[in-house]
Each structure stands twice: as C-alpha cells, then as structure tokens.
C-alpha cells in the first residue's frame, strides 16, 4: 500500500485536480493523508466528494511544510510513502511504476522521478533522462519532493524532515528539506536511485523576476546555504555553488537585464546568509 502525504494550505482547485488524477490510478491500494494547514474548513466539501473513491485521512497541522509532512508520516500505514504537493497531479500509472521499481530493486530504500508540466517539460527542478544512483554530488539532479517515494520501513532510520528547513518553517531557511532528507538517507547507508520513467506532473515554476520571485529567491537561497552548511560540504563545493549565481548576476548586469540581476543577487545573498546563520540557529 502507498501512503500519499498531501500537505495543503490556501488551495482548493489544484487539490481537486490531484484527487481527480488519483481516481484514475491503475494501482488502487493507497491512502491519501491530507495534512490540512488551513484555519477554516474549506476542504470539507472536497474531501466528501472523493472519500467514496479512495481512502482519505484528514488531519490538522500547524503551518510549516516539514512539520506537516512529519505529522503525516506519524500516521502513515503504507509500505511506501510519498509526498505529492497539493498542486501536482499523477499519471494513471505513476503508482504502478513506483511499485514495480521497488519490487525489481529490493536494495533501494528510495526511488525518485521527474516532475514535468502538462507539456512534458521539467517544471520544478531540472533532471536528466538517464537513470542514475543518487550521491552527495548529484542530488540536485535527482528530482524534488513530488518525485520521492520511500519504503515505510526505512523511515525509522532516516527520520522525518528537518523542521528547521522548508517553506513555512519558523526559521529563515525556506527550502532544502527534501535534499536534506535524501542526503541523510545516504548517510545512514540507504541506497537511492533516480528513474526518469517515474513521472509526477506539476505546473511550471514561473521564470518571472518580479519582486515576489526575488524575495522567494532570497528565502530559498537561505535554505540552500543552511543545507550545505548542515551537510558539511567541502569548501570547494561551497565556492562552486556561490560562483554560479555570482557569474549569473554579473552577466545579467553586463546585458542590462536588471530584473534577472536582482534575482540572481538575491539567490547569492540568500546562500551566504543561510550558510552563515545555520550554526548560530542550531545552537539557540
């Protein structure tokens, strides 16, 4: 059985789209754990519409994506656990493929896949089209939380998500929790593999460089900076990760693309802030 932990706040239509995709799943043995972070009962009617078509367990959680996921993990009953966003959707054979991969690869604790938009283009994080084993050096090419499927039995060793990382956290580090989860899995000896034929859909993240996106880049940059500090990556790797946005910022300035320059500078500054703040934050 699969446990799909869906953490949701301030959404309705996108969650309905996910539910409709689950009605069409060829693999029928799954439960949906809706971790509701809304302050009202807006989801009651929607859940009532689908509860007869698949098992839905509705729980409440304070805001914070990592905290909500951990609350979902605490009640999950599935042999396999996954973390679809409330604005993603599955293909009819997504769970069939995930189960087949686990059966064919008993050595794997986690399988990951691609997140594509409706046109089949990478929509959240860039991934390749070649199957590969996840390592400390390629983890950013192996998908995002939508495409993480983990054996429930492995969670006891890996642990949940770090609640100091991720969107809605009480900390300044608004990303990095899914990469941290995968890296901790590797640290305890678990094997993880990326499979490009395992697909979850998600609308494409905007490439706009407006004020909200710039603010988001700085918050997410802090999370990434905290991640690479927490995971004790060597200084050459840290320098490489700083050099990329630095070069992007300078190139954007040379081309007089000021919006892109502000965005890349925000990402760079965020990484520096997160890297510097992580030890102080954890010691408080």
Portion of residues in helices? 40-55%
User: What is the domain total for the residues?
Assistant: 2
User: What amount of the residues lies in strands?
Assistant: 15-25%
**What is the level 1 CATH name of the largest domain?**
Alpha Beta
Extended strand count: 9
CATH architecture of the largest domain: Alpha-Beta Complex
> What is the overall silhouette?
globular
Class from secondary-structure proportions = alpha/beta
Unreliable sequence segments: none
Please count the helical segments.
9
What value does the average pLDDT take? 94
Q: Mind telling me the C-alpha Rg? A: 19 Å
CATH fold call of the largest domain:
Spore Coat Polysaccharide Biosynthesis Protein SpsA, Chain A
Element-level helix/strand string:
EHEHEHEEHEEEHHEHHH
Q: Looking at this structure, what is the CATH superfamily of the largest domain?
A: Spore Coat Polysaccharide Biosynthesis Protein SpsA, Chain A
For the largest beta-sheet, the strand count, sense and barrel status come to: 9 strands, mixed
Distance between the termini: 40 Å
Task: Please write out the topology.
Layout: E1 2-8, H1 13-23, E2 30-36, H2 44-50, E3 55-60, H3 65-75, E4 80-82, E5 88-90, H4 94-104, E6 110-116, E7 132-133, E8 148-151, H5 155-158, H6 177-187, E9 192-202, H7 211-230, H8 235-254, H9 258-283
Parallel strand pairs: 1-2, 1-4, 2-3, 6-9
Antiparallel strand pairs: 4-8, 5-9, 6-8, 7-9
